[in-house]
Specification:
With 538 residues, the protein is of the alpha+beta class. 56% of the residues lie in helices and 17% in strands. The protein has 13 helices and twelve strands.
């Protein structure tokens, strides 16, 4: 409708130019020009009416037929007013027919052609006899043929146009649907996707990539990938030749993210157009940190199961002769007549027997802990007992203690197992302290349904390459230690439904975080002590 209205206005402009160029000196010119102006105004009013009707979007079929008929009527009036059969405006009939074909298709074009033929024939009727009759007859039949030929061509073109519009509309719908699918796919994909061109500039990324790598991707758009993701850029530079040759491998990289250091599984793939011309590369990646943690935990549990199988036999094979050896040493030590040097050697043997017995006991506790009945136990009281026990060990360095344990922090587990956890974690903090200026902080916080025990020190810290192995059995960096203390802690914490982790910076200290399920504490009796806020240095 807008195009047809524009065409009407163009024709009205042509009519206005025709009127203005008409000779004004001829008799009756004023009446003639006024009639043309009137028809122009009528055509303009009809165009405005049709345009408003189309905007109303109701009774569209009636609008089409009204336009088809009114166009023929207006053209007939113009031709009648400008000379009947000899009028220079007879070319408007084919224009009206083409308009009818566009609006009404086959039916509209046929109707317009029939009406044009009838009205044009009436303009020739009755025929004027005279010398120019054969020429006029030829012109008449030529116009008739032009009208019908225009109708035939207009109908064919209109049908093709409608078919093309329908196909285009369907293609647009399919394209829009595909764009929506691709957009939603990229948005909802759990894996991060980034693409780069041949020069290594970032060309696209999805929301998952932003969630994993951070919002720096927005600023890096159009710039080299290494500005936002150096690790990915280095990996792509290393594997690009292999990927271009058809290789498909998955790689793992460590990535510093806003959520901390994460492990990413990354796969690279080439980008090319329909002619196989290279366009760049893409990287698809996932955060597999939790998967790797579960894998390590499964491997750890498998090791525990293997150790548990051999624990019983190992205990009998070591403890029985160890008990005999210890008893014999004690018997000899109590006998008289033993030289001082021999007695000193016997004391060394006795101490080593006790050390071996403790080692076997720790190993058995780690490999096959006893299933003990849990009971409500106060974290505050057990921390007190553990600190009092460690205070009686003169070999430990002095430390400035900061302790904050709120009242009502209770767990449901065996008290002995909780003491083992506290003893090993706090003892590990003492053993890491410097000779002077040592500080230890012990605190308990409540998060959701868990108590979080945090033990921090300002010791030498743990090397980055050693940190993933500190809970492995028999792993130690100090030769005189067994390497089972932290392994026992992790085993007991896991069996109680908790989790333990270590954070460390070399030269700045270590922090152990133990999360355990919280339980309500039983009512306190009269005279029970309040919460620990601080403890003296010792």
């Amino acid at each position: 409708m807008p195009w047809i209205t524009a065409g009407r206005l163009a024709l009205l402009g042509l009519l206005a130019a025709f009127v203005l160029s008409w000779p004004s000196a001829a008799p009756g010119t004023g009446t003639f020009v006024a009639g043309l102006y009137g028809l122009g105004v009528a055509a303009l009013a009809a165009s405005a009416l049709f345009f408003a009707w189309a905007a109303w979007r109701r009774y569209i079929r009636a609008l089409v037929w009204t336009q088809v008929v009114s166009d023929v009527v207006l053209v007939t009036l113009l031709v009648l007013w400008t000379g009947r059969a000899e009028s220079p405006l007879t070319f408007l009939y084919p224009v009206a027919i083409i308009t009818a074909c566009l609006l009404g298709g086959r039916a509209g074009g046929t109707t317009s052609a029939v009406l044009s033929t009838i009205t044009f024939a009436l303009l020739y009727w009755p025929p004027r006899p005279g010398p120019g009759l054969p020429e006029r007859a030829f012109t008449f039949f030529l116009n008739m043929a032009a009208f019908n030929l225009t109708a035939a061509l207009g109908i064919a073109l209109a049908q093709r146009l409608r078919s093309a519009q329908q196909e285009l509309s369907e293609a647009r719908v399919d394209l829009r649907r595909m764009e929506q699918i691709q957009r939603h796919l990229a948005r909802n994909l759990r894996s991060g996707v980034v693409t780069v061109d041949d020069a290594g500039r970032l060309t696209s990324f999805n929301q998952a990539a932003v969630d994993i790598l951070g919002p720096g991707l927005y600023e890096a758009y159009g710039h080299p990938l290494e500005t936002a993701w150096p690790e990915g850029a280095r990996l792509l530079a290393e594997v690009a030749p292999e990927v271009a040759a058809g290789g498909q491998h998955r790689y793992e990289i460590r990535q510093a993210t806003p959520a901390g250091e994460r492990c990413l599984g990354v796969a690279a793939f080439p980008l090319s157009d329909e002619a196989d011309r290279p366009l760049g590369h893409g990287l698809i990646f996932q955060d597999i940190t939790e998967l790797k943690n579960r894998q390590r935990h499964l491997e750890y549990m498998n090791r525990l199961a293997a150790l548990g199988e051999m624990a019983a036999g190992l205990a009998h094979e070591i403890r029985n002769p160890l008990a005999s050896l210890s008893g014999s040493v004690q018997f000899l030590s109590e006998s008289g007549g033993i030289p001082d040097e021999a007695r000193r050697l016997l004391d060394i043997v006795g101490r080593e027997c006790e050390r071996l017995d403790r080692l076997v006991e720790s190993f058995l506790l780690f490999a096959r802990p006893e299933r003990k009945e849990g009971q409500p136990v106060s974290l505050r009281e057990e921390v007190e007992r553990t600190l009092a026990l460690l205070a009686r060990r003169p070999e430990l360095p002095r430390a400035e203690l900061t302790v904050s344990v709120p009242d009502g922090s209770c767990l449901h587990m065996d008290p002995g197992e909780l003491r083992q956890i506290l003893f090993n974690v706090i003892l590990n903090a003492y053993q890491a302290l410097p000779p002077e200026g040592g500080r230890i902080s012990i605190s308990v916080a409540h998060e959701a349904d868990r108590h979080v025990l945090t033990v921090s020190d300002n010791g030498a810290g743990i090397r980055r390459e050693d940190l993933p192995h500190i809970f492995d059995p028999f792993f130690t960096t100090v030769p005189e230690r067994s390497g089972l203390g932290l392994s026992v802690v992790q085993r007991l914490v896991l069996d109680a439904g908790g989790e333990v982790e270590a954070r460390s910076e070399p030269g700045r200290g270590t922090t152990f975080v133990v999360r355990m399920p919280a339980r309500p504490c039983p009512p306190k009796g009269p005279g029970a002590p309040g919460p620990i806020d601080a403890a003296p240095a010792g």
